[in-house]
Write a structure and sequence with these properties.
The complex is a heterodimer of chains A (185) and B (114). Chain A is mostly helical and 185 residues long. Chain A has one domain. The radius of gyration of chain A is 32 Å and the shape is rod-shaped. With 114 residues, chain B is an all-alpha fold. Chain B has one domain. Classes of the chains: A mainly alpha (185), B mainly alpha (114). At the A-B interface, helix 2 and helix 3 of A face helix 1 and helix 2 of B.
């Protein structure tokens, strides 16, 4: 802004409309630059808010769709597919158990019962991870919506939910990974 | 998501779970093995449909799904009254015939617009 004042002064001087270009003191120039920066920042923020508001319905739809793909429960979406893969794995153990019973193999029966319990735990853990992922998508949609409405408290609350979910998911994933590693030993 | 394929996916998940429940109550090793094999067949279709969920729909697919739903009712009855392995395997094969027709149609459909 200070530069613009000086430039305009020079143009007026060159056009012989004034005798001397105006001088702007260093402190005023700094002040004007700061005001200019603040105006630019405010303009950028207001433009960003408009963009966030315009994008909000689409962003909300995308996150809702992603949450739907993951699945609201164990009978839908990726959660359903993953859960049934575990049912298949457990199914193999069930069949082997039935055979062990028919063959009166007590030791094998016991091992298979333990294996089945372990598989059931892994099935639950993986489903919890996916359920957490789904909640994160929905919380991100909420965070974006709160941002679009200028609701800082709402943004904070939604981001806190996402952070909690990420922490829980990481913890569950680590347990799941450790259990899988134990299986391979 | 394609609503017809989503419905097909849910239906396959439900049949797989029904067979898994049946397997849990089965004490005959041969019948248990047969149920597990048929579960694997259904699981393969679940994976296929999962990968096709974002395809456009057509009237052909909607009609094919109606056939699957009729076959689904028959399979539910068959699972409830498994008498012998052969008739059970036939019931699953009849059901999967209609499922495969629906999947073949879905494979030819364009992806949903972004």
């Amino acid at each position: 802004m200070a530069q613009q004042v000086q430039d305009t002064g020079k143009q007026l001087q060159n056009a012989h409309l004034i005798e001397q270009a105006p001088e702007v003191s260093a402190s005023i120039a700094t002040g004007l630059t700061k005001i200019g920066d603040l105006l630019l920042k405010a303009k950028a923020q207001s433009e960003a808010r408009v963009i966030v508001q315009q994008a909000d319905p689409t962003i909300g739809k995308v996150f809702a769709e992603m949450a739907e793909v993951v699945g609201a429960n164990r009978t839908t979406g990726i959660r359903g597919t993953v859960f049934e893969h575990w049912e298949q794995i457990k199914g193999r153990t069930k069949v082997d158990f039935v055979k062990a019973v028919a063959e009166h193999d007590e030791a094998r029966r016991r091992n298979l019962a333990m294996q089945y319990a372990h598989e059931m735990n892994q099935q639950q853990a993986q489903d919890l991870v996916l359920a957490s992922l789904r909640r994160s998508f929905l919380a991100l949609a909420d965070a974006h919506h709160a941002l679009a409405n200028g609701d800082e408290v709402g943004v904070g609350a939604a981001i806190a939910i996402v952070s909690d979910e990420v922490r829980d998911t990481r913890s569950l994933y680590d347990k799941f990974k450790a259990a899988t590693k134990d299986d391979k030993k | 998501m394609n609503d017809d394929l989503k419905a097909l996916h849910s239906l396959l998940l439900a049949q797989h779970r029904a067979l898994s429940d049946k397997l849990g109550r089965e004490t005959d090793p041969d019948k248990a093995e047969a149920i597990l094999t048929e579960m694997q067949e259904i699981l393969h279709r679940i994976d296929l449909v999962q990968g096709l969920l974002f395809r456009r729909s057509t009237k052909g697919l909607t009609n094919a799904l109606a056939d699957v739903q009729s076959a689904d009712t028959e399979l539910t009855k068959a699972i409830r009254h498994i008498k012998d392995v052969a008739s059970f395997v036939k019931a699953v094969a009849d059901f999967l015939k209609y499922v495969d027709e629906a999947i073949d149609i879905a494979k030819t459909l364009a992806p949903l617009a972004p």
